[in-house]
Each structure stands twice: as C-alpha cells, then as structure tokens.
Design brief:
The complex is a heterodimer of chains A (186) and B (239). With 186 residues, chain A is mostly helical. Chain A is built from eight helices and no strands. Chain A is globular and about 60 Å long. The chains are: A mainly alpha (186), B alpha+beta (239).
Chain lengths: 186, 239
C-alpha cells in the first residue's frame, strides 16, 4: 500500500513537471525497464537508447495514464513499443544468417544453472528479427497475429522466426553447457 | 510433444527474466532531463488548428460587411494606363502570356471589365481600354487548366488573399468613373461561390464544414455548418 501511495504521489509531481519527482520515478523504474530493454537490444548502448526514448515518451504521455491498471505494466508496454519502433527504424540493417536446424532437444533441468547474463548475451546475439519475435512471443506473451501487425511481417513469418530463434538459443545453450561441463571435468 | 517442449522452454526463459533488472549508466537520466526540456513536436494542438481555420474562414466571410467597398477601392492604387500599354500590362499581370488569347475588336472609349467565376470555373476577363487611341476590346479567355495564370489561381485557391487581389485588380483594371459599382456585387457573389468551391475541394462530405449563400443586397450568409458532431443547416437555403 505504501508503495502505491508513493507512486501516485510521484505521478502527481511528474504531471506538474516537477523535475525531482520525475527523477525519483525514473530511479524507481529504470533498473527493471533497463532489464527489458537489454533483451530487445543487440548491446547495452542500444538498450540505453531505447530506455531513454521510452522514458521521455512516458513522461510526455503521463496525462494519458488512467490510474486503473498497473503503472509498471503501462511503462513496460511503452518500453516494448519503443523497442519495436527502434527495430522497425533499423530494419534495413537487419542481417540474415544461415542456420543449421537444431533438432537435438535439451534436457529441461541442465541449463537452469546458467547465469542470467549468459542467457541475455545469447538473446542479444540473435538476429534482430528473431530477437524481436522471441521476446514478444515467449516473454511478453504476444500472439503471432499481434507480432505480425507490430513488425509488419506475416503470421507465418512470425512463426518461422520464432522457431528459428528457439533453435538458435537451444544450440547456444548446449554449447555453453558443454564448455561448462568440460571445465568441471578438468 | 514438440509444442509442449517449446512452451516449457519459453516459460523457463520468461521466469528467469521476470525479475531481471540492471542499473543503466548515469548519462541516461541526464539525456532524459535534456529531452524533457525540449517541446514535444510530434503532438500538434489539433483542436487549436481547427479553431484557427474556422476563425480564418469567419474573418473572410465577415470582412466585406465590416469594411465598405469604397474603402477597399480607395486603399488600392489606381493606375490609369494609356490604351496601348494596357494590353501589355494585362499580359504582364498574368505572368504567363502564352495562354492568353487576344481578339481585337474596336470599341471606342468604353471600359469594361468582367470577372465572372461561374459553375464551370471558367474565368472570363473582358478588358477594354479608354483613351484617345481607337481602343481595342480584348477578350482573355482563361481556362482553369494546369496553365491557369497566377491571378486566376489565387482567386480559386486561397480565400484569404483573394479579397486583396480581387479588389486591387478591379481598381487597377477599371476606370474608376465607370464600373466600380457594377463590379462590387459580382465580386461578392463570386466570393460566396468561391468559398463553397474551396470547401468542396477540401471537404468530401455532403454537408460541408461551412456553406455560404449570398443575398442580393445584404452580402454573404452562412447557411450551414458541419463540425462532425454538430451540424447546423439553414433550411430556407435548401431550395
């Protein structure tokens, strides 16, 4: 309850353009939002660009936020939409990669020990389109229809990019596990 | 089976990243603060733009009533050109002499100028000269095609400045003794049709943003308004 009150108090200040309130709100939300941006970006610099654009947009649209839903969820959607926009702007630089089909299945338990940072790096290393589709579908819970609309691709394109993204991630996880295992044995 | 494994894979990653957070570099907040000081250019005040358009239209419509025509004419520079020069001056006014057709007919000592904007958009200008030299009546048939002269375009396309241009043109082209009176009502009538014409170009709806009709003696009246939710229509004008 206390936290809700604090957010509402900060929001009132932000709507009046109070810079201290804006900074406090930023400090409260930035780390979590940075975590989201990092998943959508190829590197840290790109993630910070998305974060910056997203926060400016959020402050400018604060009057549109109805106090009904979750404020964090609202900000999160702004970040994801900013990431989608950044992806669409940079669509020309999208590089296609050749991909060997990965049919081997991973055991469900083994890779749970991997560090979050390793997993993040794998997601960041995915081709831009795969990374977008994987994040939107697997983590954000968008449907293929929604992804197709947002990214300007077909539904079947979204499905195939998702399965390729999964296959690439599984392959990378497997490689990492093998390295990890070899190090332990030595 | 494959689908189940995929879902499990997605869920594991989703769970891992649920609480993932990382501190951004301090420069990000500084950039945000700079960005917040700049005005948001993407958000235009559409309501105000709409209001401004209405005000501009209203001022165009009300202007002739507030300011007597004599004053408009008195403000405009009156130039009397000798007959020989008049024709060439006309041509220069239109900036595109290639499309001006001149038929010479001799009409001594008469000055006539008609500016007619009828439903077919044909702008007809009849110019004759007044002077000692046997004057020639020149008919300038201007079709509203791609090459329509600048003056005619101004009359058709822009409601604001056309008052000025039309008033000035009339004063320049007319002998002040003659047709200032006979010209004025036509000018007004033309304006009413002009406003309706411009709106018909901009507004595809059956009921335009503003509809105007003109009374013989009293000038322009707004006979219809269509602001989306608010529609006003003067029924007497619906004949």
């Amino acid at each position: 309850m206390k936290q809700t009150f604090t957010i509402e108090y900060l929001l009132e200040g932000c709507k009046k353009g109070d810079r201290h309130a804006q900074e406090s709100l930023y400090r409260a939300l930035a780390p979590k939002m940075m975590g989201i941006c990092l998943r959508y970006a190829a590197d840290r610099a790109d993630a910070e660009d998305i974060l910056q654009t997203g926060f400016i947009r959020m402050f400018q649209r604060l009057a549109d936020f109805r106090m009904e839903g979750s404020f964090e969820g609202w900000v999160r959607r702004i970040m994801v939409n900013t990431a989608i926009e950044a992806y669409r702007k940079n669509l020309r630089t999208l590089t296609a990669i050749s991909l060997d089909d990965v049919n081997e299945e991973l055991s469900q338990t083994d890779w749970n020990g991997l560090e979050l940072q390793d997993l993040l790096k794998m997601i960041q290393e995915l081709p831009n389109g795969y990374r977008m589709v994987f994040n939107l579908y697997a983590i954000e819970g968008y449907s293929h229809r929604e992804i197709a609309d947002e990214l300007g691709i077909s539904e079947s394109g979204s499905k195939s990019q998702l399965s390729r993204a999964r296959a690439l991630l599984k392959e990378k996880i497997k490689e990492l596990e093998e390295k990890d295992h070899a190090r332990k044995v030595r | 089976m494959q689908e189940k494994l995929d879902k499990a894979f997605d869920r594991s990653l989703r769970d891992k990243f649920r609480e993932f957070s990382e501190e951004p570099s301090p420069a990000v907040w500084e950039q945000i603060a700079v960005g917040l000081d700049r005005p948001d250019r993407k958000r235009l005040p559409y309501a105000w733009l709409a209001a401004a358009c209405v005000v501009i239209f209203a001022s165009v419509l009300l202007w002739p009533k507030q300011e007597p025509e004599e004053m408009i004419l008195a403000k405009a520079p009156i130039i009397n050109l000798p007959a020989a020069e008049t024709a060439s001056a006309k041509q220069e006014n239109f900036k595109n002499p290639a499309i001006v057709q001149i038929d010479k007919k001799v009409v001594p000592n008469s000055v006539r100028y008609e500016d007619r904007l009828d439903s077919s958009n044909e702008l007809m200008v009849v110019v004759s000269s007044s002077a000692d030299v046997p004057a020639a009546q020149k008919e300038l048939n201007l079709q509203p095609a791609a090459s329509t002269p600048v003056v005619a375009e101004a009359v058709v396309a822009s409601p604001m400045p056309d008052m000025d241009i039309a008033a000035n043109t009339s004063a320049v082209m007319n002998d002040p003794e003659d047709s200032a009176d006979s010209f004025a009502p036509k000018q007004k009538k033309g304006l009413g049709k002009l406003v309706n014409f411009v709106l018909s170009q901009v507004d595809p709806r059956a009921d335009k943003l503003i509809e105007v009709s003109e009374d013989a003696g009293e000038g322009l009246h707004i006979t219809g308004l269509n602001l989306g939710l608010i529609k006003l229509k003067n029924k007497t004008s619906n004949k």
